[in-house]
Design brief:
Blueprint (H helix, E strand, L loop, with lengths): L1 H31 L9 H9 L8 E5 L5 H8 L5 E6 L2 H13 L6 E5 L15 E4 L3 H9 L10 E5 L10 E9 L2 E8 L1
Parallel strand pairs: 1-2, 1-4, 2-3, 4-5
Antiparallel strand pairs: 5-7, 6-7
Helix pairs in contact: 2-3
């Protein structure tokens, strides 16, 4: 009986160790590419998304979607037509897929394992709302490259960080404090 318990204990330790290694590698990897997984508090998400005046016909994108909580709120709380997330970090990516499936939202939410530095024109073709909670360097790059291909009228919600220089392609509409975050709202002209 002691042998069975020892084997069980070793298996539990092994599974925990593998999970711990995967989780830490995932955090290290996402930090290396400039976008560590830092989740928003759930109590702020709805108020932040309300700034974007989401509609039922919106195709909502979360760049750096983490564990999927913002995507889920866009669908459940605002009824957007579809929500799509792009996430590079393996742990949050897989966790979000499991969470979305467990909530029965796979038909409305899609998450892609993608590096934002490799966004192509076609990746955001259908976006009507783009949400980002990313470091300034990545936010700047997106406004100078991929966001130039957004269709006119596309709304952009930036949490905590915004581009230092904004060109004629974007209209700044609002900044608002939600919790300890400053939210910046732009529209593609």
């Amino acid at each position: 009986m002691a042998d069975i318990f020892s084997i069980f204990l070793l298996m539990v330790i092994l599974v925990f160790s593998i999970f711990w290694i995967f989780f830490n590698f995932s955090l290290f990897y996402s930090d290396l590419v400039g976008a560590p997984f830092i989740p928003l508090r759930k109590k702020y998400i709805r108020e932040i998304l309300a700034i974007g005046h989401l509609k039922k016909e919106d195709i909502f994108y979360d760049l750096g979607s983490g564990d999927g909580r913002v995507l889920i709120s866009a669908v459940k709380d605002f009824g957007v037509k579809e929500a799509r997330g792009l996430e590079i970090s393996p742990f949050p990516y897989w966790f979000s897929k499991i969470l979305i499936k467990s909530k029965g939202l796979r038909s409305k939410i899609k998450v892609f394992h993608k590096n934002l530095a490799q966004l192509e024109k076609s990746d955001l073709d259908e976006a009507s709302v783009v949400f980002l909670y990313l470091f300034p360097k990545i936010t700047e790059k997106l406004f100078q490259s991929a966001f130039l291909f957004l269709k006119p009228g596309t709304k952009i919600i930036c949490v905590s960080f915004h581009p230092k220089v904004i060109d004629d392609h974007f209209k700044f509409s609002l900044s608002k404090k939600v919790g300890w975050h400053l939210i910046y709202f732009y529209q593609r002209i």
